[in-house]
Queue: 3 jobs
Job 1
Amino acid sequence: MDNERTSRFSFSPLSGMLFGQGTEIVFKNPSENLYLSELIWDLKPLIYFGLSLNYGPANSYIDSGLIYNASIKFGLPVRTGYIENRDWLNTTQHHLTHFSQHYAYSNSSALADLSLGYSFALFNRFTLKFYGEFSLMYFIWTAVDGFTQYPPPPWSTAPVWNSELPKENIYGVNIRYIQNWYIFSPVISLETRVRSNISLEANFSYSPLILCFARDDHFQRNIIFYDILLYGNYYNAGSSLKILLADNLEFSLVLSYRNIEGTRGDNYVEENNSTTLYRNIGGALYSALDMSMKFQIRL
């Protein structure tokens, strides 16, 4: 009988927001972690809408089976806070010498996840899931209007930056920064029934398998920086509250936190029609809280 089937498809319209930041780093030299430059781009917040497609056991507390999930989220092109740029340009002492701040706008953003694994039913009350997940994150920010606080040259002997330095106003689009993240991670998840129509789920993943392509355009300086970054530490922890509204309709509130650190690689500088390679001085970070809600419609 159809109502006895053990697996089913579902799809879920969803919406939510990211609250965090992406960071571009330039290190002073290949073998140390001292910063030469740091640009922090806000996602405070980034509103998104999306859709997910799921396949798995019709009742995961009774039946074990294959699970599949694919999701895509698109961020709205809105202002997401500020971009702050700090530099440590003194060549003999390591202290902050330069600071600038602009409005940060998200021009385009997308997050996609694709997972495949297996779900185990335990004691008619728990569901244990193991799966592999491939994640893609794509962000484009622009820095618009703002100010700089720079000391007088020569910058190689610049004193410690202080907030009393005069501000020079900057107008228009000054910087564009692009981050492309590609991550493969193993995930473990545990779900349990609290009541007949309410369940809780928690998941965790960690992986060093990270690839990032980044590009930084400085329009007023007519210079472009490219980064090819590998490995690092990726963490993703989340939880969700699920409420079964009807046999084929479930509402979920989802909270998760994603963090990427330690990603490092080569930096390419394109200026005056020539490109210079600097080994292992490029870096990037990402950290964001993800809060969303979705309606899962079971087919």
Job 2
Amino acid sequence: MAVKAKKHIATKTASSMMGRKVIAQLLGEHGNALLGALKTASSRHQGDKRGKELKQNILILSLKANILWEDGQIKQKQLMKMVNPLNDTTLKLHDVLHSTKNSTMALDLLAAKMDNLKDLTGEILAPLMSEKNLAIYEDVAKYYSSKEFLMLLIENSEYDKEKQIVREAIGALVQPLLNKYGLEKKEDDFCDLKDCEEGIVDFQGSSFCGKHHFDMHQELVGGAPSLIHFLTNPVGKKSTVFKEISKAHFPSNSTKFFIAVENYKVCRVAVRYLFAEGMFENFLGSAANKKKVDVDAEIIKAVHVELKKHSSKPVTEFKSVEEMRRSIRQNAPTAPSIDLFNDAQAYVLKQMETVFDEQFVKTGKWTEYLDHIKLPAHQTPDQKE
């Protein structure tokens, strides 16, 4: 049956009395108690209609997510990234529920952790659900993770009964939740290549599964010696021989700058200007000290000129708070191009490549390295397919 059809059935199931009874059996005693407590609390807070709506939407979303998991659209590797935040948030919730003192700071921290968990879950569901269902998820998650609801549940004596039920249910549900799909494995146990869910091969501290480690090695053997491999590849980064050579012979801070540029290229647009400004100040600007890199003065000047085009403009005079806010928004810094540091990075890379060729390639260390990371015969994947 198509996933879309299954998800449609999930909606119908969660909307019927018989369906809800079946789901309740699947949730078990503690899960059902937790859901009931949340429904009662939200009904008291925003009315019975709203409470029923939230409960039904939780059931619908749970069934849809379970279908996506069973059909392999939610990957185990994605769930691995949820383990630590889920552990962290649940422990914080447990602490707050059992605390005898009301703490605004603790509540703020819990709300922040729950909001982060909401966003992480949303990132997994976004490509797999319709806009309508994502809106339902956002509504449910935003409500229950809000500081307003948490304060009612934790600090308002009218909600003591629900608080006690949630406290007991959380304690009983945490461990089974983490172990349900073998989540005792760590994220680091899986291949570092995106979308690959195979376990890493037990060889030389590799970060890849056997197939992708083999493919990486074949590509290196068939190509020219690669400095980039040691700067960006998780296997290359672990080479102690390369680290020793780069530390002893590379221009100061060159590897740090190269990697910083790579990180800049993938940072969020919202923080790109601040990232770029920090990089310029730390690596290129006249005030740079400990992290200063050797780059041609004309390249530095060009970066500075381009960066200034995106900086915040002086806030003009204003007659009201609204005018002030509008002026700040209109004059806020804008995101520079991801290519802003390309020339500087190329300049630094060329300096490193000269040293790499002299100290690593011509000395035979590149060939030795290839032999060092070659999988032994018993771990080499079958290439017949």
Job 3
Amino acid sequence: MPKTLHNKHLLTNELLYLRYGSIEPSAGTPALLTIRTIATLMKQNPTTLRYLEKLHFRPPSQNRLSLQPPKLNVRPSRKKGSAATPISITEEELEYITSRETLRAQASYPLTWRCVMFHRRFHDRFISPASYGAILK
């Protein structure tokens, strides 16, 4: 049964002992075993063991508390408008959705495309296909 990652120090000590023959190796100590071999012996993921090894040789000020890799490239939400629901819709928006001209022009469009057209008309508002369909009923 694989060891849990809750005891990070125990895993790190075992890894370092198997890899370098010492619990406190220096940065220039040659490796005795590969990470893949140690991962097989310890029944752990090689990526986790590489991460623990890097944590050991990193200066203490840069160590993180989590074993999960940091989340990079997290984009903020690009939506900067408000959602239009059947309750919060304005008169102008309701007129646009229910007008004969709009209904004729968008007769062959699915609801998702109609929602896109709504957003193109009202740039700061978004509407879901379910809300759009509820308004049309």
